[in-house]
């Protein structure tokens, strides 16, 4: 009798559990392991300082006699584990967990130090967590809800949202947490694709008047010939977070920094060996420099023009040239008039592994120095080749100059005028594919300051990076 009861209970459990397990059609587990070695020298553009990199806090950079070295040397690891499950009725889910850390940084950080992250080094963080429903309500419609990556076009406007939630890595530009908390609706009317996106960038408190939100729509058309594509877009960043303390009584309009971006992109191959493309965007909206400052109208331009040529040769050489313009502002202290600095908060492409993060992730002591990614134009020449099937070499050269004059005091006639010559950068990389799953990469990056930077803040900043990456 006891055996019969046991069998009956097991049968009942299986009957109840079977429908739940049957809903999962397929489960895929994947991931990656990345190990990095860094050496950085003179990231404050001053070789006399005993320091490699400094945060853009405005504080003076300086070394100590206790730790005398020419630069920073450290290791970093990034580990990811992703689970993708295909359910019934065109429903799928993706969850990606990640740990990123400098090796044993906790063990040697000083208690209470600004860069201490004791207890966070081995945190497991949530990178991706979304559900995707295809043909929901209407066959061309796909709905994606949750924490997801967003890349549109070449990423000139939207593609990157860098995060280091536990402050466990120094090289924040290498973070692999780039996701958005978003709702995305995609309508596929091939060759037309329409995307509508809402993303919560920063909730702050639950008061809607202190949030930062990103809204947007992107329309893409793929032509039948010349590998051609054209797209237009409108993105709106409503930022009530940056100046959330302004007018605490609740007048949200007085603490708003709105950036509305409208633009378009075209790209095509006139022949199989050549790719040409261009993108132009205009930004408008409102800008406030600080709490209590007057509201200014925003007016900024961004442009990206490029061309590439690929030789039909066994080494597969490619040579490209690119011009990028990101408008700037000469009078950063003005309380009236248009504000002209480009807002590239979510731009994906890297315009120099060192220069692109100047006054963003690292800073010099140059008076009046403005952050990279705005008030600059640059011309770049780049190329790749594969001398062996498993070896790829890349080289990128940039020359940077300012769009508008920069003054050490923040405005004309208040402090000295700085030269428009920002400098140039050379980035070199060798990528070796040991197997299909294991890749070795070595990078050497050099930023040589131009006449914009004044002694002693005009020394060459260099970076050497070695990486081994395993995917599974």
Describe this structure in words.
The protein has helices spanning 2-22, 105-108; strands spanning 24-41, 71-87, 91-102, 125-134, 141-148, 180-189, 192-202, 212-222, 229-239, 257-268, 274-287, 296-310, 318-326, 376-388, 391-401, 406-407, 417-418, 421-433, 438-449, 461-471. With 472 residues, it is mostly beta strands. It has an 18-stranded antiparallel barrel. The protein has 2 helices and 20 strands. The chain has one domain (26-471): Porin (Beta Barrel), CATH 2.40.160. The protein is globular, with a radius of gyration of 25 Å.
- Overall shape: it is globular
User: What is the count of β-strands?
Assistant: 20
| Rg for CA atoms | 25 Å
**Beta strand %:** over 45%
CATH architectural grouping = Beta Barrel
Which bin fits the share of residues in helices?
A: under 10%
Q: Assign the CATH class.
A: Mainly Beta
Q: How many separate domains?
A: 1
Order of helices and strands: HEEEHEEEEEEEEEEEEEEEEE
Task: Report the structural category.
Answer: mainly beta
Mean pLDDT: 88
**Low-pLDDT stretches:** 1-22, 58-68, 108-115, 246-252
SSE topology sketch:
Elements: H1 2-22, E1 24-41, E2 71-87, E3 91-102, H2 105-108, E4 125-134, E5 141-148, E6 180-189, E7 192-202, E8 212-222, E9 229-239, E10 257-268, E11 274-287, E12 296-310, E13 318-326, E14 376-388, E15 391-401, E16 406-407, E17 417-418, E18 421-433, E19 438-449, E20 461-471
In short:
The strands form two sheets. This protein has an 18-stranded antiparallel beta barrel. The chain is built from two helices and 20 strands.
Record keyword descriptors for this entry.
mainly beta; two-stranded antiparallel ribbon; Porin; 472 residues; disordered N terminus; 5% helix
């Amino acid at each position: 009798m006891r055996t019969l009861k046991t069998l009956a209970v097991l049968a009942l459990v299986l009957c109840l559990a079977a429908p739940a397990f049957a809903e999962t059609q397929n489960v895929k587990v994947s991931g990656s392991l990345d190990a990095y070695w860094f050496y950085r020298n003179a990231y404050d553009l001053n070789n006399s300082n005993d320091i490699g990199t400094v945060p853009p806090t405005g504080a003076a950079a300086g070394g100590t006699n206790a730790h005398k070295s020419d630069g920073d040397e450290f290791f970093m690891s990034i580990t990811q584990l992703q689970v993708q499950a295909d359910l019934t009725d065109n429903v799928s889910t993706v969850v990606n967990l990640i740990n990123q850390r400098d090796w044993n940084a906790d063990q040697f950080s000083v208690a209470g130090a600004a860069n201490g992250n004791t207890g966070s080094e081995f945190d497991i963080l949530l990178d991706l967590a979304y559900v995707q429903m295809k043909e929901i309500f209407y066959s061309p419609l796909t709905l994606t809800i949750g924490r997801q990556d967003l890349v549109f076009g070449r990423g000139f406007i939207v593609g990157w949202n860098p995060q280091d939630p536990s402050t466990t890595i120094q090289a924040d530009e290498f973070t692999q947490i780039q996701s958005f908390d978003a709702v995305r609706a995609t309508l596929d009317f091939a060759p037309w694709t329409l995307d509508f996106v809402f993303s919560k960038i920063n909730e702050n408190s639950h008061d809607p008047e202190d949030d930062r939100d990103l809204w947007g729509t992107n329309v893409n058309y793929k032509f039948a010939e010349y590998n051609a594509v054209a797209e237009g877009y409108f993105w709106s960043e409503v930022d009530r977070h940056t100046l959330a303390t302004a007018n605490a009584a609740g007048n949200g309009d007085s603490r708003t920094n709105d950036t509305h971006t409208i633009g378009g992109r075209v790209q095509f191959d006139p022949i199989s060996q050549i790719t040409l493309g261009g993108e132009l965007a205009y930004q408008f909206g409102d800008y406030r420099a600080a709490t209590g400052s007057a509201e200014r109208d925003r007016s900024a331009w961004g442009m990206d023009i490029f061309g590439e040529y690929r030789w039909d040769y066994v080494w597969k050489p490619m040579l490209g040239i690119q011009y990028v313009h990101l408008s700037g502002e000469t009078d950063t202290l003005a309380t009236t008039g248009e504000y002209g600095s480009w807002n590239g908060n979510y731009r994906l492409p890297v315009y120099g592994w060192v220069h692109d993060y100047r006054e963003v992730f690292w800073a010099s002591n140059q008076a009046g120095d403005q952050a990279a990614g705005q008030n600059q134009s640059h011309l770049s020449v780049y190329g790749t080749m594969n001398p062996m099937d498993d070896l790829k070499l890349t080289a990128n050269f940039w020359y940077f100059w300012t769009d508008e004059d920069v003054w050490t005091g923040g405005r004309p006639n208040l402090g000295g005028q700085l030269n428009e010559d920002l400098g140039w950068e050379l980035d070199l990389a060798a990528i070796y594919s040991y197997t299909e799953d294991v890749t070795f990469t070595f990078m050497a990056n050099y930023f040589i300051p131009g006449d914009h930077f004044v002694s002693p803040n005009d020394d060459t900043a260099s970076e050497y990076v070695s990486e081994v990456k395993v995917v599974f």
